[in-house]
Amino acid sequence: MKKDIKLIFEDSSEMNVSYGTQVRDILKELNDDQVIALRINGEAVNADYEIIEDGYVNYITVSDRIGKKIYINGLKYIYIKAVKEYFGEKTQVYIKHSLGKGLYTEIDTKK
User: Fold this and answer.
1) Count of CB atoms situated within 10 Å of the CB of 70
2) Between the CA of residue 53 and those of 6, 50, 69, 106, 110, what are the distances in Å?
3) What is the Cα–Cα distance from 66 to 63, expressed in whole angstroms?
4) pLDDT lower than 50: segments of the chain
5) CA distance 53 to 34
6) Can you tell me the distance from the alpha carbon of 36 to that of 85, in angstroms, rounded to the nearest whole number?
7) CA 21: distance to chain centroid?
8) Quick check: 17 and 40 in contact, CB under 8 A?
9) Residue 13: its pLDDT value, please?
10) Which of 45, 62, 81, 106 has the most CB atoms lying inside 10 A of its own CB?
11) Does the model's pTM come out above 0.90?
C-alpha cells in the first residue's frame, strides 16, 4: 500500500511525495540551481535515495563543504568521461593533486 510522505524543508515549506520517490525527482521539482543535493533527517543522501518515511530536509548547495565535494566529484567524472570519449576507452586518466584552484592530471594513451 503506497502512502503519501510528508517532507518539511528548512525554509518551513512542505511537500507531499509518494512512497519510494527518488531524491532526483524532488530536486527537479525544486527547480533551484543552487541546490545540488539534500540532507534528509540529518543524513546527506544520493540522488537515487528513495523516500520511505516522513522527514526534515535541508538543502545542500555548492557553498556548503559537502556540496563543494559533490560538485568537484561531478566535474571529475565529466572530465574523465570526456577524455575517454576523445582518446578511447583504454586511456587512463590520473587525477594527481590540486594545483591552485585547479587539478593536476595525467593522461596515458598508451595501449
Assistant:
1) 19
2) 8, 9, 27, 45, 50
3) 9
4) 1
5) 25
6) 26
7) 16
8) no
9) 92
10) 45
11) no
User: How many residues are listed for the chain in this entry?
Assistant: 111
The pLDDT value recorded for residue 2 is 59
Q: Compute and round to an integer the Cα radius of gyration of the chain.
A: 18
The 3-class secondary structure across the chain, one letter per residue, is CCCEEEEEECCCCEEEEECCCEHHHHHHHHCCCCEEEEEECCEEECCCCECCCCEEEEEEECCCHHHHHHHHHHHHHHHHHHHHHHHCCCCEEEEEEEECCEEEEEEECCC
Please report, as a single letter, which amino acid is at residue 57: V
pLDDT, residue 98, reads: 82
